[in-house]
Target: N-acetyltransferase domain-containing protein
Amino acid sequence: MIRKLNEQDRAALLAFLGKDPALNLFLIADVENFGFDQDFQEVWGEFEPENGQIKAVLLRYEYNYLPYAAGPFNVQGFADIIKQDERMEMLSGSASIAGLFNQYISFRKEKSMHFAELKELDGEKSVPVSAEISAQRATLQHVESICSLMDGIEEFEVSPESSRSNMRRTLETGTGRTYFVERDGRTAAAASTTAENSMSAMIVSVATHPDYRGEGLATLVVTKLCSDLVSEGKSLCLFYDNPDAASIYKRIGFRDIGGWSMMYR
Model:
């Protein structure tokens, strides 16, 4: 049976999602932050007929859909819900789950990423590169300096205005944090989290100024960021599509746990 979930389902839903907190990062964060009564968000659940326990979940955030299941589920039932939304833009999720929807929904484009998780730091490899350099936790007064670093990184396509407003919002709401290091009076490297929730967080926006690459600064800030969150009992995750660029994460303990697909209608 599939039905729309409500506030009375919160505890059972979060317990179900909490069995895989990294993979369910976005689902957990959206439910914790926005609940079940928002115009821009809806959540459906499929239940086991024998015991009434949740076996699969589908979340709509704006025009994007995210399914999750711990085992076999009613793919067609979820697909029928999605197809009723003419404004639907994207379906994303674990590659093994998202791929099941291809037989029911036509997609024009699919982007695949590697998905990695960190549960505990590799202590031997996570030692900072230099005792003389320390990573600082950013506050609102550091937003301009850190975003100026991001402005100069070609891989980041967010506009300067958006990057600043996004960072301010995550710092103000506590849904993300940033660590950075300074060299010669400017931000030399930084790393952030997003979608932080009670169980997990995602690493994003890892950057090093071109003048300071090869010095281990990115490793330092990512290690400090991860150490912070692991000490709070949270698991961390990240997407990557360049195996070479992922070497920094593998050194401190990230392990691949599967693929992630973003499928555009």
